[in-house]
Amino acid sequence: MNTLILVTQKKGLSFYWLPRFFGLLLLPGFLFDTEILILLQSLILLHASLGLETIIEDYLHIDLIKLQCLSLAKTLSILLTNINILYLL
Questions:
Q1: Distance between CA 70 and CA 74 in Å, rounded?
Q2: pTM (2 decimals)?
Q3: Domain range spanning residue 69?
Q4: Where are the alpha helices (DSSP H) in the chain?
Q5: Positive or negative CA dihedral for 20, 23, 27, 33?
Q6: Predicted local distance difference test score (pLDDT) of residue 1
Q7: Number of domains the chain is built from
Q8: Mean pLDDT across the chain, nearest whole number?
Q9: How far apart (Å, rounded) are the C-alpha atoms in residues 49 and 34?
Q10: C-alpha–C-alpha distance, residues 77 and 72, integer Å
Q11: Is the dihedral angle over the CA atoms 64, 4, 14, 21 positive or is it negative?
């Protein structure tokens, strides 16, 4: 319900289409070069980060805890992406 309201108000249009766009990019059929694998794993982690951010924003109602969890989720997402890239290189 909230997503439909955001889309109709043009506030959350990119937030609505971004996970769907990355979901289409994750379809199988890629040649698994190192660059493609880095891109694929980065998109998977970005998709997971967007989902985790949505869950935190929807279900945590205390602002301080919500801010801490969001910053922890972003930090872990960046850290995991960097570890993935360094591991594959």
A1: 6
A2: 0.61
A3: 2-88
A4: 2-8, 13-25, 34-59, 63-88
A5: positive
A6: 47
A7: 1
A8: 79
A9: 22
A10: 8
A11: positive
